[in-house]
Amino acid sequence: MMKKKMNEHIDLRHNNIDKSTENKENTENPDMKAREESELSAFGVSKENVTDGSGENTEASDSVVSAVRVIEEKLAEMQDKYIRLSAEFDNYRKRTLREKMDMTKYAGENLLLGIIPLMDDFERAHQHMDTTIDCEALKAGIDIIYGKFSDFLKQNGIKEIESLNSNFNVDLQEAVAKVPVEEEKKGKVVDVVQKGYYLQDKVLRFAKVVVGE
To answer: Which of 34, 120, 137, 138 is most buried (CB neighbours < 10 A)?
Structure first.
């Protein structure tokens, strides 16, 4: 009789412990449960498939291992792509730098190629200066060379600043001297000491002029 009562008392304690554990599980933080389920679902594993660590459910463990392997493979692939992309960008940077240096070094190549024929004409004229007796022919040759050179400058966007008899403009001209003039010529350019030029719309060289006062 005594032994029967003791067994009943032990069973009652076990029932109380089971109920306490169940109540504790039911009162767990819902946010924590949601976070755990989210973390498990990222690996393709549901919470129902996860055991208490006893090792009885190997299916969940295999799923986690498989998911980790997939992530590791993707990480290795991304690292390989990053290394390749970094190497390609480094090669591009070096190639661009080299092209920029070549462009700076040979920027005037086309311009110089256009000047060389004019230099040939000047050399031929210079060779005949001491031997020719026909000054008119020599003068005509010089005029031809001058015309070619003027056309060459225009083709490359260089044009003369028209200064003579114009109002003095500090944005285009530089006064090197002033001379007394009639009333109507005061403030105007009466002589051009050195021509000025535009390069497209930019002043390439200011004209040096004499201004009337």
So the answer is: 138
